[in-house]
Every structure is written in structure tokens, then in C-alpha cells.
């Protein structure tokens, strides 16, 4: 491609979008590096079960993530986990990516930094995180097999997690602030008609109480219609109240964001910065794995064609 650099393409974020970009990038013959401050799979890895990704009637988030990793590595993509990207110098060619484990240059950068779990912000939440307060039922649910647990939220994540826990633990409560679930119909039907989950409607968590021995002891709940407070003794609380964009890096390097803090992209997943693309949940969309994968694919193909001046088969690549 004319420019000398360590990599042809660096992808920040190893969720489904970033990994799809890595699979396409490496398969097109590009020297591809994927960086993630966590592990391959991103939030998808924390989903107990994925039932709506075409081709898999049921697969766990962890297994799906492992398949993504193997497929990308098969085509030669390099994946570095637990590496945080501190800054990206986009006003130079090649682009320089500075990370917690060194600097790398690349012709193209794709941002697939995804989203993170939203916190409730109630007393006891931060203090007990990792000791009963969890944002991932797949990861921590098995620790509470013979216990009572509580899930907060009314969307797809909360209902999926409550259903998973219903099959695993002694008793599951779901606390939702309204009298209707936001989750899609099949999940609503499953929880309302085919589960033992106790749903506390119109209710919010006011406080999470830890025990002296460590770990969660009980949770104070308020019914927001009646103002009545009650407490439930549970060993764990799984918070699934939505997600916030991981946009600190995008902000820092001057990528244009929407009002919601998501990265603005065109139909080809291009950002406002040349040679910088974005895909997946960090861009506006429906938060679906299948869509994230499509966007990652589009980002890699667009970058490839942009670098070649729109020529898919050309021998000579332009410098973009
Ligand atoms: P979500 O759809 O935004 O739902 C968040 C839920 O938490 C809502 O029910 C909301 O209540 C509640 N909530 C928000 N802030 C709250 C607070 N401070 N206190 C109490 N409750 C609060 O988030 P999500 O379920 O994490 O899903 C995120 C995205 O991933 C969505 O696009 C979703 O479709 C997708 N996803 C898809 C699947 C699937 O396809 N199977 C599985 C998981 C996630 P209100 O309803 O009152 O707003």
C-alpha cells in the first residue's frame, strides 16, 4: 500500500464487530492487529446464551467468542488482550497507536470499543462489586447455585440473565422500575409464562447491604407507586440496566460523536477522520451481535477499498 507501517490495520476492541473486521482484514491479506483492554468477545462474552445469531440456534457468549478468536487467528490476525489504547495519532501517516504495552503504526484504525455495563449508583454497589454485586450472570451465577439472587432491569439483558439464573440457583427475583418489560416478546413469554422468576414490578433498588463477613446480605427495594420499602435477603445482585458507550478514546482523538456519545459514521463505517473507521455498539444501532458483525465486515471492506481507490482486485494500492 505504499506506506511502511507495523500493521495494515489495527482494530481497537475485540467484541463481535472488531473480530469480524479482523477476520475480513486478515483474510484479505492485511497484517492485522486486534487490541482489547479486556478479552475477546467483549460484552457478548458475558451473555449466558445467544439465540438470535443466524446459524446458531443456541450458543453461549463464551463459546461464540472462542470461535471468533480461532477464526481470526486462522487467517493470521494477531490478538493482544489486556492491552489498553491510551492515544492514537491520526494526523500522521502511518497512524500511531500508543498502548499500555508499546506503540504500533498502522495504515488504518477501526474503533470497535463497544459499551460497558451501566451502574445503578446506589449505596453498597461499588463496595460490594465482585463480592455479590455482578454485571455478568454467566461469569458469576455459578457461584450462587444454592442461593437466592436478584436481577435488576427489564430489557433483553435482564430477562436473559434472570432466565439463566432461574435454571441455576435456588430462587431468582427480577426487580423492574415499570410494570412492563422492555425485552422482546419471546423473552417476555419465557419469563412470564415458563419460569419461576419472581418479578417485583414498579420497584427500584435503594441500597445493597453487605455482611460483616463480606459479600451481599440483603437489598432494600422501594415500590415507586406506593412508596413502600421492603428488604430481600439475597446473596447476589445482578445489575442489567443497560449500557454506556466506551467513547473516551474517540473523544480524545477528535472523532465526532452523536448526542448519545456514539461515534458518527457514514454508510461505509467511516468516521470524520481519514483512515479511521468505527463499528459495532459504539456506533448508533440496535445493539445486536448480527448487526455488529455486519458493521465490522463493512468497516474492513470499506477500508480496503478506500486504500485501493475503490479497486477490489488492483495490484497497485494507492496511499489513500
Ligand atoms: P436496555 O434495553 O437499554 O434495557 C435497560 C433496562 O434497564 C430497561 O428495562 C430500563 O428500564 C432499565 N433501567 C435503565 N436504567 C435504570 C436504572 N437506573 N434503574 C433501574 N432500571 C433501569 O439494555 P440491555 O437489556 O442491557 O440491552 C442493551 C442492548 O443489547 C439492547 O439493544 C438489547 O436489545 C441488546 N441485547 C440483545 C439481546 C438479544 O437480542 N437477545 C440480549 C441482550 C442485550 P425502562 O424499561 O423503564 O427504560
Please summarize what this structure is.
With 320 residues, the protein is an alpha/beta fold.
3D architecture notes:
- This protein is of the alpha/beta class and 320 residues long.
- It folds into two domains: 7-116 and 243-319, FAD/NAD(P)-binding domain; 119-239, FAD/NAD(P)-binding domain, CATH 3.50.50.
- The protein has helices at 16-27, 61-74, 137-140, 156-166, 185-193, 248-253, 289-307; strands spanning 7-12, 32-35, 78-80, 85-89, 95-99, 102-111, 115-117, 133-134, 148-152, 171-175, 198-200, 203-210, 216-223, 229-233, 236-239, 243-245, 276-278.
- The strands form four sheets. Strands 1, 2, 3, 4, 5, 6 and 17 form a seven-stranded mixed sheet that branches.
- Helix 1 packs parallel to helix 2 (61-74), helix 1 (16-27) packs parallel to helix 7 (289-307) and helix 4 (156-166) runs parallel beside helix 5.
- The mean pLDDT is 94.
- The structure holds NADP nicotinamide-adenine-dinucleotide phosphate (NAP).
- NADP nicotinamide-adenine-dinucleotide phosphate binds at residues 47, 52, 120, 152-158, 160, 177-178, 182, 204, 240-243, 286-288.
Give the H and E element order.
EHEHEEEEEEHEHEHEEEEEEHEH
The largest β sheet comes out as:
7 strands, mixed
Could you say how many structural domains there are in total? 2
* C-alpha end-to-end distance: 8 Å
Task: Tell me, rounded to a whole number, the average pLDDT.
Answer: 94
From the 3D structure, determine the CATH topology of the largest domain: FAD/NAD(P)-binding domain
Structural class: alpha/beta
The radius of gyration is 22 Å
Could you say which small molecules are bound to this protein? NADP nicotinamide-adenine-dinucleotide phosphate
